[in-house]
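Contributing new records

If you add data, match the layout below exactly. Sequence lines come first and carry their own label; structure lines follow with theirs. Keep one chain per record. Anything else will be rejected by the validation script.
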Amino acid sequence: MSTSPGPAHADQFFLNGLVWTGGERGPGPEPTALAVRDGRIVACGSDAEIRELAGGRSTIVDLRGRRVVPGLIDGHMHAVRGGATWESELRWTDVPDLRTALATIHGAAETARPGEWIRVVGGWHPCQFAESREPTRAELDAVAPDHPVYVQALYEVAVLNSAALRAAGIDATTSDPPGGHFERDPMTGELTGRAFGMGAFNRILGAIPPATPDREKRSTAAMLADLHALGLTGIVDAGGFGMPPERYESLFALWRDGGLSMRMRLFLSAADPGQEYRQLEEWMRHTPPRFGDPMLRFAGIGEVVHYGCHDFEGLEEFSISDDAAKELYRISYRAAEQGWPVNIHAVLDESIDRILTCWEMVNERIPLRGLRFSLSHADRISPVNLRRLAALGAGVVLDDHQVFKAGFSEAAWGDGAMAEAPRIADMIAAGIPLAAGTDATRASSHNPWLSLWWLITGNSADGVARRAARHRMARGRALECYTAGSAWLSFEETSRGRLRPGAYADFAVLSEDYFAVPEDRLPWIRSELTVVGGEIAHTTGTVA
């Protein structure tokens, strides 16, 4: 049995389980029990060993043979943005066909207030449907004729019904916005209801009445509750587009009121093109690195560090200009000078090459090893740039956006390109720190078990396994990325992501044994009991 120093007593006991403590298993039998005191792990071992620490007022929970794992930490999620509208949106993550999807729209229309928008904003893709297509304007009209309906598939396409076009003030005479367009029938010139590009998406979303601050706060709490039900105890929020300081007010209000149950680690992005250095410098000037408490903490700068360096999905030709590279160097140097980690979105190897050149220039003046700089995605990284990344001590945040986009990415990058997207085995061999996440809530599903399934199988939602076997992860290694690996981003890998004495008592009791279920069951795992700092954040009542 392993125990923490100090008095040999605990106030909570979790017995009769199968406990994966994180990392490589040591010799001897697998632990079956945990002891917790003051929100931290006191000991792990056999039931008999842990019972010896019990006192007269101890709480005992029978795990009923369930698998226990460290609480999952999504290393790349846009949770602050997603939480603000969570309650007012539908989610099609697990919907298998168009008929079921349309039924959810019809059901929402039955209970919605007159004129209320019904929306599905990302987190799904037509490739998951039996029909392999999105709904049409006519189909949305049929199931919800009196409500504006907006359905967005990742960042690829959106479909509006007739009521939504009217509510957004869009008709056949409407000009296409910069960075987007509204599709028109080539014969009649009439709108089809389909829209493409961020400019079009933002034009429509901007027409939806915003929620009140109180509703955003409640919505954020509802999202966190749903994520706890999946076994999440922590999120690294990646910032992203359109995230000025005021967008964090609902999260901060939840935290101030003592209602924050999820450990949130925030990366802070530039909100406006052309203002990147000034805006990020404002964050850094007024906020010390890693400022916060165990529940809410600023983690770093990113993922949008400079708009001229953001290569989006990597499906179109892209290059970082000299001016953008100079600004990236300037921001990266300032972050390193202040001790801030930097995370930056980069899909293409050409982008990564330019980013690493900037970071190597910074490294010549301020050593980056130990500052936890990292790339998100890195789908197309080359062996040469992997070695450069490793030399800087930088990491990679893996996410499963390719679970939906793999077919499109292969079409853009060439046959066989997805066999090494990303080069997971080479990253591991190079000793690069790896975190894992979803990139939810728009670019991918919020389900961490779908992301783990993707890491392990190399499969995508269209049923094709494209990633080479050598670049697929063993289950333990994948879960390590989703726990201690994501904690690495915020310098917490010794206190979070492992169930060892002294670590936070953050863990999930699973509905099925992650290490034993067939691969096709992995996306359907849920949490029966989720504990954050010794406090129950979610329970189904199955274990007691």
